[in-house]
Write a structure and sequence with these properties.
Rossmann fold; alpha/beta; 18% strand; 10 helices
C-alpha cells in the first residue's frame, strides 16, 4: 500500500507543511543510515520524535504479553559466561537498537538487548581494525550484545550486532563477524531478522517476509557484489506460522490505523519475491526511483553478507532464513523530492519499527518452535 503525506498525517500526526515541524530535509544517506540504526524509541530520541508525531504509538512499555502455546513460551537463559557466544541449535541476529528492543521483549522478556544483554568483545581489537573509526562497533567498543533463550527443546543464542555492512567501511568486517559468531554458536539454523522497506503495493506495516533467497543490489560502495544472489538449501519450517499470525493480534493495535488487514507472513518462493540487500538507504517509491521493483519484495542493508559467508563455508554452513518485517511500505512519489520521500520512510520506521519487529520476532519464534 503506497503511503503519502496524508497517510503520515493520519498515522503519525505530522503536518509536514507546518513551520513548527523541525525535521527539515532528510540528512545525507550515510547519516540517515546511522540515525536509524541508533534511533531508540525508548529514550530521549523517541520522546523528541513523538513530540512532533503525536499519533505515533508509544514505547514497548505498552507491550501486551503473548499467550504462548503450552510448552513453547521462551525461557530466558542465565547471564552467559566467557568470551564466546554460547553454542545453540539456532542463532538469531538483529541489527538496530529498536529491533533489538523488540526482539528481546519477545524472546528474552526481562532482559533488554540494549540495557541487559552481555557485550560481545571476542577478538574486538583485531576485527575493529577492519572498520572505519566512526563505525558503531568501534564507537561502542564491542561487536554486539547477546543473551540466550530456549523455545521448546531448542537452545537459541540471540545477538544484536553493532557491526554493519553499511557502517563498517570497505573491508567487509561484517563478514568476519558473521564467520566468528557462526563458529562460536555452531548452529543448525541461522536467522537474520529486523525491519525493511516493502517493495510493491501489497506490503503493509507489520507484514513479515520469510526468505531463503537473498540478493545484493549494490550501487554505491560494494558494486563488486551487485547482483550476487544466494539461497539456503531449504525453506524455513512453516507449521507454526498460522499460530504466529494469531499471536500478532496481541500487539497489532500499535500498527498503523490505515492498515487494511491484519499483518501476515509470506514465504518467498524465488529470488524475485525474496529479500534484497542494498548498500544505500534504498526504499521503494511509486515511480521506482531506485529500481527495486521486480528484484524482491523487501529491501534491507546487510543480510546478503550471511548468504556470502555461508557459500564460503560450503558443506559446513548452517541453513539460514531471512525474516524481515515491513517497517515502511512503498512511498507515493506524488511529486515529492526524493529527500522528502526518504524523510517520510525514516519517520515511519521511527514510529512503527519496534512494533513491526514484534511481528518478525514472533515469526522467528515460529521457526524455532517448528524445528
Amino acid at each position: 500500500m503506497p503511503v503519502d503525506l496524508a497517510w503520515a498525517e493520519r498515522n503519525l500526526g505530522i503536518d509536514y507543511d507546518a513551520p513548527k515541524v523541525a525535521l527539515g530535509a532528510a540528512p545525507n544517506d550515510g547519516d540517515l543510515q546511522r540515525e536509524l540504526i541508533e534511533f531508540d524509541s525508548d529514550a530521549r530520541a523517541g520522546e523528541a520524535f513523538r513530540s512532533v508525531a503525536p499519533a505515533a504509538p508509544g514505547g514497548l512499555v505498552n507491550f501486551v504479553e503473548i499467550p504462548w502455546p503450552d510448552g513453547l513460551a521462551p525461557r530466558v537463559g542465565r547471564k552467559p559466561r566467557g568470551e564466546s557466544l554460547p553454542k545453540a541449535d539456532v542463532l538469531i541476529v538483529t541489527w538496530t537498537v529498536d529491533e533489538g528492543h523488540a526482539l528481546s521483549r519477545v524472546l528474552t522478556p526481562g532482559r533488554d538487548s540494549h540495557d541487559d544483554w552481555k557485550p560481545y568483545t571476542k577478538n574486538f581489537d583485531t576485527i575493529s581494525q577492519l572498520m572505519v573509526p566512526e563505525s558503531p562497533a568501534r564507537q561502542f567498543g564491542r561487536l554486539g550484545t547477546y543473551w540466550t533463550t530456549r523455545i521448546g527443546e531448542r537452545k537459541v543464542t540471540l545477538f544484536k550486532s553493532d557491526s554493519h555492512l553499511s557502517q563498517d567501511g570497505p573491508k567487509l568486517a561484517n563478514a568476519v563477524v558473521w564467520k566468528q559468531i557462526i563458529e562460536d554458536v555452531k548452529p543448525k539454523w541461522v536467522i537474520t531478522t529486523g525491519t525493511g522497506g516493502g517493495i510493491g503495493t501489497e506490503g503493509e506495516v507489520g507484514d513479515v517476509i520469510v526468505s531463503r533467497f537473498i540478493t545484493f543490489d549494490c550501487q554505491r560502495n560494494f558494486v563488486q557484489f551487485n547482483g550476487d544472489s544466494y539461497a539456503s538449501p531449504a525453506d524455513a519450517p512453516s507449521s507454526q506460522f498460522e499460530q504466529a499470525t494469531e499471536l500478532f493480534s496481541c500487539n497489532a493495535q500499535f500498527l498503523p490505523k490505515d492498515n487494511t488487514r491484519p499483518p501476515k507472513i509470506v514465504t518467498a518462493t524465488e529470488p524475485t519475491n525474496g529479500v534484497i540487500t542494498t548498500d544505500f538507504f534504498g526504499f521503494d517509491t511509486s515511480d521506482g526511483h531506485y529500481g527495486l521493483q521486480g528484484k524482491g519484495d523487501l529491501s534491507e542493508m546487510g543480510d546478503a553478507v550471511l548468504g556470502m559467508v555461508c557459500k564460503e563455508l560450503g558443506a559446513s554452513a548452517p541453513a539460514y532464513s531471512i525474516v524481515r518485517n515491513v517497517s515502511d511500505p512503498q512511498i507515493a512519489s506524488n511529486g515529492l523530492p526524493i529527500n522528502r520521500q526518504a524523510q517520510l520512510a525514516a519517520d515511519i520506521y521511527k514510529a512503527y519499527g519496534r512494533w513491526s519487529t514484534v511481528c518478525s520476532a514472533i515469526a522467528c519464534w515460529a521457526i524455532v518452535a517448528a524445528l
